């Protein structure tokens, strides 16, 4: 049964009004080509010392020859990370020491490269195979390339789960489940995994998704991507999160991580933050400003902590801007992954991705994000 949160506080931004009183959008010339690929890249992360990593999802680039996770050298050439063996499931002797379906990568506050591997998971279709590879998190030491943490997510997932993305808050890892609506909390001290906001309105995709002016269709029906984007506020007090269709909600991390609260009590403490459009990716800067992609109008919105939005940039090249990143120099990285053009979202099953797939940058001088 869906639990609908009681909206005890709705800020002005919840109306979804983009202010016309803000600075004019950036010109297209501000958008720089940083990386190009003949395979679909869906995420980018940059270490504090400038090392650049990208991931290739199974729904776009992972089904083609090449690594699932790669480090790019100074010339932009990809090299399997941490090595070829981790990127070769077909010949893996230990299935827990190879990537299956990488969906997200992030440089964590500990300096490790964290990889979200969704395992043998489906989205919006039949249940995941009971004997399939479970979802897992793997954190790699950037110096040695060795795994430091491997967390199998059996306790926090269901047969319909698709583990999507990850953020950090102290000793808690917070993950979104885009397949079976909910958030997954992992306590790094105890190893306990707990699902919260299961099938709540705030984690469930309940409205049509549009990209490039078209209804997003999958398997002959409107696509549903449940809990997807999430960000932690700079002071660690709030979690912003949403299904891919929007809107964006917020809840205090203290409430989220309080096991004494029932599901109903927690849901009542969730409030609408902003009526976001269909969203591919988000990022938050060190001042608490959120950057949200509008995949229907091919633009990025900047939303202040007070819920006031303005258009940062609009450009026809920003086709499904996905997992963005702010590096230590304040540069914004934007993968334009064209998810809506991939075969999974075409009635005839034929990809309409226009190659190369590109990661762009904006030199904004932003205060780097706090990743906790």
Automatic annotation (TrEMBL):
It is found in: Secreted. InterPro entries: 6-blade_b-propeller_TolB-like, MRJP/yellow-related. It comes from the Bacteria. Residues 1-23 form the signal peptide. Gene3D superfamilies: TolB, C-terminal domain (2.120.10.30). Its main location: secreted. Keywords: Secreted, Signal. GO terms for cellular component: extracellular region. PANTHER family: PROTEIN YELLOW-LIKE PROTEIN, PROTEIN YELLOW-RELATED. This is Yellow. It comes from Acetobacter oeni.
